[in-house]
Amino acid sequence: MASCDISFMDADKTVSATYTANPQTVQIEGDGTSYYSIGSALNNITVPGTIIRIRDQVFAENILMTGSVAVRLVGGCTDDVFTTQGASSTSVIDGTLKIKSGALKVQRIKVR
After folding, report:
1. Is residue 105 part of a domain?
2. Burial state string for 34-58 with b = 16 or more CB within 10 A and e = fewer than 16
3. Which of 74, 86, 99, 101 is least crowded, fewest Cβ atoms below 10 Å from its Cβ?
4. What is the average pLDDT across 44-57?
5. Does the structure show a pLDDT above 80 at 36?
């Protein structure tokens, strides 16, 4: 049987850590808030005609739109400021997208 050595600290130790926030993946035009899910952005809309732009990645979420306004959801954004789309870039919702109220127009979005 192998032996196990245990050593104890004999003085205070200092540990430091640096954290970097993930870049936002969802943006409501004209809103400086960082969003990381489509559902949270959709349900914070109060102005009809608002545009939500999302990154060209997979979003694993089941979305239920409950707002009573019309919203446009634009996917496939490839840059950090949500202004560029690649020729074939799309965003994927790996889950469901249900609309309880309001209206939703989508562009470059796949639901699987």
Report:
1. yes
2. ebeebbebbeebeeeebbbbbbbee
3. 101
4. 94
5. yes
